[in-house]
Amino acid sequence: MRNSQSLHRLLVPIxxxxxxxxVCPASASSGSDYxxxxxxxxxxxxxxxxADPSCFPTAGPGGGEAKATILHLRxxxxxxxxxxxxxxxxxxxxxxxxTSYSHHAGVAGGQRSDGGHSNNNHGxxxxxxxxxxxxxxxxxxxxxxxxxxRLENLQQKRNTSITYSSSLKELLQRKINALEQQLSRLxxxxxxxxxxxxxFRNDVMFFLQTGSSRKKSKSPDDFQISFxxxxxxxxxxxxxxxxxxxxxxxxxxxxxxxxGPSLGTPFSYSAPGQANELxxxxxxNNPIELLIDDKAVTLPLSVSDGKWHHVCVTWSTRDGQWExxxxxxxxxxxxxxxxxxxxxxxxxxxxxQEQDTLGGRFDATQSFVGEMSDVHMWSHVLSASDIYNLASxxxxxxGDVIAWSDTEVELHGGVARYPFDSCH
Length: 424
Known about the structure:
alpha+beta, 7-stranded antiparallel β-sheet, 35% helix, 22% strand
């Protein structure tokens, strides 16, 4: 219907032009000998509706000018027809794009942050029709501008996605670099000579050997404890004590000396009234000594080479007889070490520190530096063959006073504990 109205508007001027033609009689003095009879000669000239006909000259002889005018009108009609067809094609394309735009605009409007509903009451999201496009070019321009904005938004989202992916990749790379730096520092600490990092080194070694799950050892005595530096607060305490006095003993343990000028105090037993009831100590420039009731003898042992050694000492109250073994071999013996003195009950067994009072007042200069394991104590003297079998791992005798077990030893002050099998 709108196309017909447009055609009508185009044809009306043409029809009015035809109706406004001026009919002019031919002059008899024109020089023509032709007799027109009852049919007078007319010369027709198209005159606009609002023009004065007297301003236009009449046509000359012949119908050339009229024929040209008719051809011109026919050409105009063809051009008008082509223009109408072009307009109809344009309207069809705009209708298709307008419908697609209305659909996308409705979807986009439903996702806005203002509650998800477009405001149709204000006409901003109004569906565009071909008539609207024809009658309102500004609306068509707005529609094209909106489509352009949507295309820019899609491009921006794509760029944002690419930027996010790039940022995520950079973040992962930074984390990888940080982990590599931590691993490098960890390796330096493990290989460094600083004694102050020994505690951390032992913790790392324990973690690496046991895994993050820290599963228990196959046997309760397959572990070692480590004292990485001299302190007055790192020690191990044996839960057991002597329930009655004893008149003989055998003390055996595996030990490995750490860095430092002396071994320190691997083992001490303090009884009520006597802080040095039973002590194994090496401090200052002194050799390793065995103290019974604060009386000392020098032991001919050499364990400061940084290697694991099996050490045993025996003592009997009868004549104060003592013996010292290293790696299953007797290195020395003697008598008169606190003879006829029984070891008092009710005391405290401490590993790694020398006690100045019952269970405490440690001196850092006398503390043990190194590692130890398999501490056992018997209330009698073991034979030389039993001690050799213990050192060669052909026997697994357990002490009746102290038996090495993770349930029997309390660790304090950061003493490290990790698996260890002295026989492998």
